């Protein structure tokens, strides 16, 4: 039965508008939920720096909520595979993290190169009498390492076996390793650590890699951003940011140094972003939500 009641007729547009608004709110809520990304990282110097930078850009420039988790490298890949994390910006491939990446390659994919040609090996002070890894033979020096699951620790164990060394490899953390190096330099003592570049210790102290004539430590790898395959599809703007975040030697080293010098790592990140506004603006071009474009 058709109603000609003028009050009812006036109410129809209002009811329709309320229904449309409710649908839009639901859609907006769903979109906001998808703007939460989880980043895992390790306590390695470059991992902290690049992850904190990505987090700041995602939150402050792109309107994401970011959840950060510090863990060991094996857990990083396990959680990526199980989608407990979305992205990891410090994957050393194709060699150092090979076993973790291959184990989960059905659910994890590489996104882009963050930094090209990093180096790993055994590191000593410039004044050291040691020139090559084989020179460690017959010494009683411990090799100061980082967490035992790290790829560099695997390579170091292989180097110890290959060069016939009896030196003990000590596992620990990045901070413990650098403390031992800096303390030994201060006292001008012999010390050997598992080291890699980029790392702030190369810009602060005169240190060098021991020669590795048989190339046990891998060459020709890069630092990649990787992500859970479902997360890559669900977060196209975050994924595109990682595709664009490609750092030169100078940019990455200055970032690491800025973070290390700051009392609060986030302050160091903001200082770097301020000095590199042009680069950051290129990264986020056309990726910002409307509400941030006018800020």
Automatic annotation (TrEMBL):
Gene Ontology BP, a term: choline transport
Domain of life of the source: Bacteria
Keywords: Cell membrane, Membrane, Signal, Transport
Keyword Ribonucleoprotein: no
Subcellular compartments: Cell membrane
Listed PANTHER family: GLYCINE BETAINE/PROLINE BETAINE TRANSPORT SYSTEM PERMEASE PROTEIN PROW, GLYCINE BETAINE_PROLINE BETAINE TRANSPORT SYSTEM PERMEASE PROTEIN PROW
Gene3D superfamilies in the cross-refs: Glycine betaine-binding periplasmic protein, domain 2, Periplasmic binding protein-like II
GO molecular function per UniProt: amine transmembrane transporter activity; carnitine transmembrane transporter activity
GO CC entries: ATP-binding cassette (ABC) transporter complex
Any Pfam family hit: OpuAC
Organism, scientific name: Marinilabilia rubra
Name of the protein described by the UniProt record: ABC-type glycine betaine transport system substrate-binding domain-containing protein
Residue ranges occupied by any ABC-type glycine betaine transport system substrate-binding domain in the UniProt entry: 37-275
Signal sequence segment: 1-18
